[in-house]
Write a structure and sequence with these properties.
The structure holds three protein chains of three kinds.
Chain A: H1 6-43, H2 47-62, H3 65-76, H4 85-111, H5 114-122, H6 127-157, H7 169-180, H8 183-211
Chain B: H1 8-11, H2 14-47, H3 53-65, H4 69-79, H5 89-114, H6 118-126, H7 131-161, H8 173-184, H9 187-217
Chain C: E1 2-13, E2 16-27, E3 31-35, H1 42-48, E4 57-62, E5 65-67, H2 72-81, E6 82-85, H3 97-109, H4 113-126, H5 142-154, E7 160-164, H6 172-187, E8 191-195, H7 199-205, E9 208-213, E10 216-221, H8 223-228, H9 233-242
Parallel strand pairs in C: 3-8, 3-9, 6-7, 7-8
Antiparallel strand pairs in C: 1-2, 1-4, 4-5, 9-10
Classes of the chains: A mainly alpha, B mainly alpha, C alpha/beta.
């Protein structure tokens, strides 16, 4: 195995895994904020805003993440300024996450029965108060499990950032595979690294789905 | 900013894009059919708890749903040759897509099968239907109909995910885009147009699957 | 004096003409019951009174104020005066019984939590659920949930209370505990407009019964006259079918 010991390899992969986690978390946190904004537009009573949100969601759910990263990467550098891969990756993944989370959350808001809207309307709550005190608290509870589930998609999605040159787990694996000529071992370890991040999240999401599905 | 957009530079490469698009469609079609078959077989094994296949499928599903498609692709394309199995880029891409979609399909179809109301099966038993007849007509077909929208979304996701196959030089749509931008130095315009093509394909694919699948599964109904 | 005044009310659902010119006057302290077959327009009529349904023609006035504006502010003003209890209770499952009752006065009127808490306890005692303040809606029977829903509506101190088939979703043995609460409200002088299938209750409690048929008021009057001497064949059929 040339000059690399297994320890060297594991250490390097662990370093890559760390960047995968950081990128995932960044995209998830910023994407949640973005998702809330898109959700607010989507639920607004103004056709233009609704159209805007729908189009945003449609575009980001209907194009490959790789193309989104390329467009952000090359689009931002159009002015002649070279932008670092991490910035393009974080921005691209944030937009992608916003679109998916907005759609997931809208599904939860829609799942609240119409009678809850009527019941609160009859108590003289206005639309904002209905949202704030009746609909969102219930929708939020429903949203937790699918949101955690989507975090798995975000973690896996960060692997695409390797293609624009961000050095995370997959990119680290690629470099190691080239240097050691042991692609089978290296990519096996890389897959194991993702699995270690994703599988607990999947399990947790399923657990939440079972326990949180009751109304209260 | 004094950048001058030049989309004509992309338009001139239309044949290249068309060829890439055709390959993407081809890969997706194979993945869709094979993935669906894997999904049905796996879902039956899981739902009926056929040992040891239910465990094997459970492991398969978890392994492939919790790792990135790109890594699966690299593992197949770069990893298998070290075991003495040589694999062409096209085959690796196709295999990866089939296996990936299959893993999701097992879970999706299983949830559909498990949502079958008990009364439906009891009613069918009371009508003296045989076990396989009950499965086919009372369990499977309604289950597929139930989960078809979810299945459709997953096929679209796999189609979009196939854009990374260019990394192992499968000549699909994003490969064409990379080639074009390396010739015309118009990366932004090229990827912008290509993204538009993917979007159109995604919308078309979703419509086709929803309509076609619905019609096929509801056949014989008014 | 008249509290609710409805004149010439028309409503369409697409091609269906569901209200075809309804006139109705409700005075303070009246207990009005709307009866009729399903699809006769009685629930729709009730729901227009607090703006859950819009209407196409005619007018509704409440204490002299005209309703009908679709603007959100006016709707909220209207709903401050008109309480409503639904067939399916529509309690908020994420709030306790006490919170269900206090939420709206706190949020909409900005009343102090301290006073609200006392009022909520008093209302719960009134509907016979004094010990359920901290319970969750899904821990209660249907009859108990419906009594909480009544307390919740009363917490807004409405001038009129609308009751939309409030016993239809209940098991038969739970109907009476809810009707007893409504009966008590009627005795205390609360203005009530109800849609109900409980004909005996309608006859005992209300002072005005309205029989709706095909989107119109077909016959109306004091329950004693209406039920014992129905004038039209449609009401005769209806009465003999349900009583």
């Amino acid at each position: 195995m040339n000059d690399f010991t297994l320890g060297d390899i594991l250490l390097a992969l662990l370093h890559g895994l760390q960047w995968t986690a950081i990128l995932s978390l960044t995209a998830f946190v910023l994407g949640s904020l973005g998702g809330l904004i898109i959700l607010a537009l989507r639920l607004a009573h103004r056709p233009a805003l609704v159209w805007l949100a729908k189009t945003f969601i449609e575009v980001f759910q209907g194009t490959p993440l790789l193309m989104q990263l390329f467009i952000v990467f090359f689009g931002l550098s159009l002015g002649g300024v070279e932008i670092p891969p991490w910035l393009a990756a974080a921005l691209g993944l944030t937009l992608y996450t916003s679109a998916y989370l907005a759609e997931i959350w809208r599904g939860c808001v829609n799942a609240i029965p119409n009678t809850q809207w009527e019941g609160s309307a009859a108590l003289a709550l206005n639309r904002y108060q209905q949202m704030r005190h009746v609909i969102l608290p219930q929708a939020l509870r429903m949203a937790i499990a699918p949101t955690v589930g989507f975090l798995v998609q975000v973690v896996k999605g960060t692997s695409v950032a390797s293609i624009i040159g961000f050095v995370e787990l997959t990119k680290t694996g690629g470099m190691l595979a080239n240097a050691t000529f042991e692609p089978f071992l290296i990519y096996g370890l890389v897959a194991a690294g993702y699995f270690l991040l994703c599988y607990p999240l999947s399990l947790y999401s399923r657990h939440l789905e079972r326990t949180l599905h009751v109304a209260r | 900013m004094s950048y001058q957009f030049d989309f004509l530079a992309v338009a001139r490469e239309a044949p290249e894009l068309a060829a890439g698009l055709a390959r993407t469609v081809e890969l997706t079609a194979v993945a869709c059919i094979a993935g669906l078959l894997i999904g049905i077989v796996g879902a039956v094994c899981r739902a009926w708890q056929l040992r040891p296949f239910n465990t094997l499928f459970a492991v398969y599903v978890e392994m492939f749903r919790n790792t990135p498609f790109l890594v699966q692709l690299f593992f197949l394309f770069f990893g298998l040759p070290t075991l003495g199995i040589d694999i062409a880029p096209d085959s690796a891409a196709m295999l990866a897509m089939v296996i990936n979609l299959g893993a999701y399909a097992v879970e999706i179809i299983r949830s559909g099968i498990e949502a079958t109301p008990k009364g439906q099966i009891e009613a069918a038993q009371a009508l003296a239907l045989k076990r396989w007849q009950i499965f086919l007509h009372v369990v499977l077909r309604p289950a597929l109909l139930r989960v078809w929208p979810a299945m459709t979304s997953q096929v679209v996701i796999v189609m979009l995910g196939s854009a990374v196959c260019a990394q192992i030089s499968t000549e699909e749509l994003s490969y064409a885009a990379s080639l074009i931008q390396s010739r015309n130095f118009r990366a932004f315009e090229t990827y912008f147009v290509t993204a538009g093509l993917y979007l159109a394909l995604a919308l078309l694919l979703r419509q086709t699957l929803l309509r076609g699948g619905g019609r096929l599964l509801k056949r014989g109904r008014p | 004096m008249s509290l609710v005044n409805i004149t010439g009310l028309h409503k369409h659902y697409g091609p269906n003409h569901v209200l075809k010119g309804v006139d109705l006057t409700v005075r303070q302290g009246d207990v009005v019951t709307l009866i009729g077959r399903s699809g006769s327009g009685k629930s729709t009529l009730l729901r227009t009174i607090n703006g859950l349904e819009s209407f196409d023609q005619g007018s509704i006035t409440l204490a002299g104020q005209t309703i009908g504006s679709r603007d959100a502010k006016a709707l909220q003003q209207l709903r401050l005066q008109v309480g409503m209890v639904f067939q399916q209770f529509n309690l908020f499952p994420h709030l306790t019984v006490g919170e269900n009752i206090m939420m709206s006065p706190r949020v909409v009127k900005g009343e102090s939590p301290h006073i609200l808490r006392e009022e909520a306890h008093a209302l719960l005692a009134k509907v016979g659920l004094a010990d359920k303040f901290d319970a969750w809606p899904d821990q209660l029977s249907g009859g108990q949930q419906q009594r909480v829903a009544i307390a919740r509506a009363l917490a807004m101190k409405p001038q009129v209370l609308l009751c939309d088939e409030i016993t239809s979703a209940l098991d038969p043995e739970l109907v009476n505990e809810v009707l007893a609460v409504v009966r008590q409200l009627a005795q205390e002088g609360m203005t009530l407009i109800m849609v109900t299938h409980e004909m005996r209750f309608a006859r005992d409690v209300s002072n005005h019964v309205v029989f709706m048929h095909q989107g119109k008021i077909h016959e109306a009057g004091h329950p004693a006259d209406l039920f014992s001497r129905p004038q039209t064949p449609e009401l005769q059929n209806f009465v003999s079918a349900v009583m």
